Amino acid sequence: MAWITLLLAGLFEIVWAYSMKLSDGFTKVTPTVVTIGFMILSFGLLSYAMRTLPLGTAYTIWTGIGAIGSFLVGIFILGEPATAMRMLAAVLIISGLVLMKLSSS
């Protein structure tokens, strides 16, 4: 259950990161409210997952899901460049996440 909770926390991190971008520096009300709401949900679920999972594992997986998800949102929704160097960086992050998951009991 902790892993499912952590996955949801990571997905909610992607939502709040994207809505933060849309908030234009917290000058637009709706994206700002969405950002704050999903931040609270994301942090709450992360905190719940940390009851069972080790700090290093939980935090690394959470930030990794957020980083890769936000990277993909940037490419596919915001039209950011998908250069070879950025793709390699994403592969390395995913490799680290897999290794972190495999190293936890």
UniProtKB/TrEMBL annotation:
It comes from the Bacteria. It is a multi-pass membrane protein. It is found in: Cell membrane. Pfam families: Multi_Drug_Res. GO terms for molecular function: transmembrane transporter activity. GO terms for biological process: xenobiotic detoxification by transmembrane export across the plasma membrane. InterPro entries: EmrE-like (IPR037185), Small_drug/metabolite_transptr (IPR000390), Small_multidrug_res (IPR045324). GO terms for cellular component: plasma membrane. The chain crosses the membrane at residues 33-50, 57-78, 84-102. Belongs to the drug/metabolite transporter (DMT) superfamily. Small multidrug resistance (SMR) (TC 2.A.7.1) family. Gdx/SugE subfamily. This is Guanidinium exporter. It comes from Acinetobacter faecalis.
